[in-house]
Every structure is written in C-alpha cells, then in structure tokens.
Write a structure and sequence with these properties.
The protein is an alpha/beta fold and 482 residues long. It folds into three domains: 81 residues, no CATH class; 310 residues, Ribonuclease Z/Hydroxyacylglutathione hydrolase-like (Metallo-beta-lactamase, Chain A), CATH 3.60.15.10; 44 residues, no CATH class. Helix content is 34%, strand content 18%. It has an eight-stranded mixed β-sheet, covered by helices on one side. The protein has a seven-stranded mixed β-sheet with strand order 7-8-9-10-11-12-13. α7 links the parallel β3 and β4. The longest helix has 22 residues. The radius of gyration is 30 Å and the shape is elongated. It starts with a helix and ends in an 8-residue tail after the last strand. It binds zinc ion (ZN) (2 copies). One zinc ion (ZN) binds next to loops.
Length: 482
C-alpha cells in the first residue's frame, strides 16, 4: 500500500518536471520536481537499500521543499511577463488571422481596427519586437524638402525609425545624410507608397546605406507594373540586400503598441489603371495626435477608404494636384495642418489653386516644402508643434525659404541649430540661381549625365560646381555640361 502511494507521488512529480521542461521558460524551478520523483520511487529506493544507503527523513523533506520553494519563486518572478509564456498560442491564432487577411486580396478590413485586432496583426506584418514608448518621449515627422517629390522621415517615440518614400534619384544621398545627421543607422519601417520615380527614386541608395527592417510596397496589377530603370534598380537592390517586403494594402498594421500605432488604410483595390491610386495610405497615431500620409492617392482611392481618416496633420495627396484631396475626403480628414511636398516652379502646376483654397476653407494651416523647406512636426501624444528649416535635403532650395511664409506655425528657435548639424552643401548663391546636377560614381574620376552607362554600378548626384571643385572631369561618352 505504501509502495503504491509512493509510486503515485513519484510519477506525479516526474510529470510536473516534464511539463516544466516542455513549457520553457515557464519554470526552471519546476524541473527540481525530478529530484523527489527519483528519490521516492520505490524501485530506486530498493536500489539504494541494496547498496546499504539509508536515506533519512530530512533528505525527503528537503527533496520536497526545495522544488516547491524554487517553483513558487520562479512563478512569482515570471508573472509580470506572463505574455511570454502565452506567446506561442497567441502567435498561432494571429498567424491564421494574418494568413486569411492576406489571402482575401480586395476585401477591405474593417474600418476602425479594434485595439485587439490591431495588435494581433502586428505579429503578422512585422516579426520584429516593437520597443515600448517611454513616457514624455516625442514623435517627430520630418517632411523632407526633396523638390518635386515625396519623402517623410519619422522618428518614433520608441526609438525606431520609418521612412516613407525617398524622393527622386538625385535625392538619395541627401536623404541619407539627413538621417545620419539625426544619428540613426537603421530604418525599421521603409514604405514605398507607389513605384513612381519621385517617390522611390532615392530608395535603392537608402537601402544600401542603412539596415532596413520591414519594407512595404503596394502590389500593382501586371498591366500597371512599371518597367522603368528606377523601379528595376530598386527591385534588384531589395533582392541583393535581402530586404523583406510586405504588401502594402488596407488593413495591414505595421505596429501597434500602447498609444502608438501605424496602420495602412489604402490601397483598397488591386487594379486601378493608374499607379498613383495604388499609393499606400498610412495613419500614424501617437496618443491624441494623428498623422495621415497619402502618397499620390487621388479621388478614386480616397473614396474607397473605409477606415477613420480624421487626422491632425495631412500630407496632401499628389503634391496638391487637383485630382487628389476631394472635398468629401477632406471633410472626413478635417486636418489642422496640411503639408504639401512640392518643387518650386514645377511644370505640373502643383499645388493647384483649387486644392489650396479647399485646404484653407477647411481651416488647415498649410505648409509647403517649396516655400518652407523641410518641415518638422513634433508630437508629445497630446500637442503638436511645428518647426521649419531651410532645405537641407534639396541642394537647390531657394535661400529665402526660411522667411517666406505667412503661415502661423510655431517656429521654434531650433532652425538655426538644425541647419548647423547637416553637412550637405550650402545653397550656392552664384551660378545664376539654376544649379546643374551631374552624377559621379564610387570610384571614377569623371562626372556624368543622368543615364550614362558608366553609372550602372554606382551613382551619386552632385552639383556641377561641386564636381568641378572636387576635381572631377566631364565624361567623354555622355558629354555632360561643363
Ligand atoms: Zn508623386
Ligand atoms: Zn505618383
């Protein structure tokens, strides 16, 4: 009878020890249950007795007490991180959610993502952990002046970074030095809103210069897929650097942790017949403050968005063109601030008077990169402040850009300081105002015209005067300006 009882206890202890082993890191302490399991086992006791080893009762007591103390101790230590133990099962469920949401291509996933669904889809989109936000940490959105093109660099309050678009091909090196001057060496989230050269132009350079976490691009229909050299170059860079690319579309969550989240709310379709409409549209939220990024999305895409688009800051679609920022969409967004990324004197007539007056009528304060240079919004999760600085990204920025606006933003004293921290070229006052851009390579001693075959391996934009000043000679094949 006593033997049966001992067998039961022995097997029980053994089971507990086994359970702990399979559920690591639940409790290393539980593993100590193996000790009483062995000591109590009548079979093993017989072995001991055969060898004339008598175990006294304090040995048994210790054998039981030690595992109990260790087990309860380790459980108490682990309890704040219970989620770690739970992770495997919740990951499985979120993975199945993600698989189904990815599979259902055109279906737009519910408008206002409930916090729970949002956080499950985090696991799907980005496998990297999202660091927690320190209280009083700031979110900074830099609307980079890249001339006629888009690029927005985001410093997240958790220390991570995001780059939405990378301007034109010649902007690549300038965007890189801007980000490096902010002491970042990683882009955690890279978003190519759509494959037009004024958005993905500098992206290959960016991928080569930084460690890239997750990249997002929209999937275009076969007929709409571009065949441009810029796009092909980007794809081959993505491949060679092994960057993981996710499909950008409505319903995808980049991350959601506490009061910080980034969700894609467009494109809602997979066939538009117009590349601009494929633009990834993103809502970035930090506490009470919401930033909406639209790429070049126009009315066709705007009208399909079912998510809540109410935002404090709107990156105005398609450089302020008349085909974007429909009244119906603007009524829903109701932005306090509108940012237009546009090049001075561009040939497209961007931004149009119609769009400007719509923005004014809704009460938005308008910022434009052609007049304000790079514009920096800072959010502490409750209030937003605005800072402008003379363009440090676009070399040909007008020198007067700092004083030119009549807009009523909070211009802090940071502009002079931030000017100092950027290396990029000072605006050359001479040269009749129109600086000529040429291209150099990593190793060559010649400068080239855009498109020259010598630019296949490496290509960096530089002003003609800088190229000459640095001793570069004109290429004899492409005959660049001299
Ligand atoms: Zn564009
Ligand atoms: Zn475009």
């Amino acid at each position: 009878m006593k033997k049966v009882f001992l067998w039961i206890i022995s097997v029980l202890c053994g089971l507990i020890a086994l359970l702990c082993l399979t559920n690591l890191p639940a409790s290393w302490g539980g593993l100590l249950f193996a000790v009483p399991a062995v000591l109590i086992n009548p079979k093993i006791r017989d072995l001991f007795e055969q060898k004339n080893v008598k175990l006294k009762w304090p040995a048994y007591l210790a054998a039981f007490l030690v595992p109990f103390v260790c087990f309860t101790g380790s459980m108490a230590a682990l309890s704040p991180a219970q989620s770690v133990v739970q992770a495997p099962s919740s990951l499985v469920s979120s993975a199945s959610i993600s698989a189904s949401s990815l599979a259902s291509s055109d279906k737009t996933i519910s408008s206002k993502p409930a916090p729970s669904t949002a956080s499950t889809s985090v696991a799907l989109a980005s496998s990297q952990p999202v660091p927690t936000v320190q209280t009083d940490a700031k979110l900074k959105v830099h609307y980079l002046d890249v001339g006629q093109g888009d690029s927005e660099f985001v410093e997240l309050p958790n220390g991570q970074t995001m780059l939405i678009d990378a301007g034109n091909p010649e902007n690549g090196p300038e965007i890189i030095s801007y980000i490096k001057n902010l002491k970042h060496n990683k882009i955690d989230y890279l978003i190519a809103t759509h494959p037009h050269a004024d958005h993905i132009g500098g992206m290959a350079d960016v991928i080569n210069a930084f460690t890239v976490g997750q990249m997002y691009m929209p999937r275009t229909s076969e007929a709409d897929t571009p065949t441009t050299a810029t796009y092909k170059g980007l794809l081959s860079t993505i491949k060679s650097k092994g960057v993981s690319v996710h499909t950008a579309k409505a319903g995808v969550s980049l991350f959601s942790a506490g009061n910080l989240s980034a969700n894609l709310i467009a494109p809602c379709s997979t066939d538009y017949n117009d590349l601009n409409q494929y633009s990834a549209v993103m809502m970035l939220q930090y506490g009470d403050d919401k930033f909406l990024f639209t790429g070049d999305a126009g009315e066709p895409s705007e009208s399909q968005i079912t998510a809540n688009v109410k935002a404090d800051v709107l990156k105005v679609g398609h450089h302020g063109s008349s085909t974007s920022t429909s009244q119906a969409f603007l009524n829903k967004v109701k932005p306090k601030y509108a940012v237009i990324e546009v090049g001075a004197g561009n040939s497209y007539g961007h931004p149009t008077a119609a769009t400007l007056s719509k923005l004014q009528n809704i009460g938005a304060t308008i910022y434009r990169t052609d007049k304000d240079g790079t514009i920096i919004f800072t959010s502490d999760a409750k209030t937003i402040t605005v800072d402008k600085k003379a363009s440090t990204v676009k070399p040909q920025a007008p020198p007067s850009s700092n004083s030119a606006t009549g807009t009523a933003g909070v211009v802090t004293g940071a502009s002079s300081k931030s000017n100092g921290e950027t290396v990029s070229k000072p605006t050359p006052p001479a040269n009749n105002g129109d600086e000529i851009t040429v291209y150099i390579t990593d190793t060559g001693k010649k400068y080239h015209r855009d498109g020259c075959r010598y630019l296949n391996k490496s290509k960096h934009a530089i002003s003609l005067s800088d190229a000459k000043a640095q001793g570069y000679e004109p290429c004899s094949v492409c005959d660049p300006p001299q």
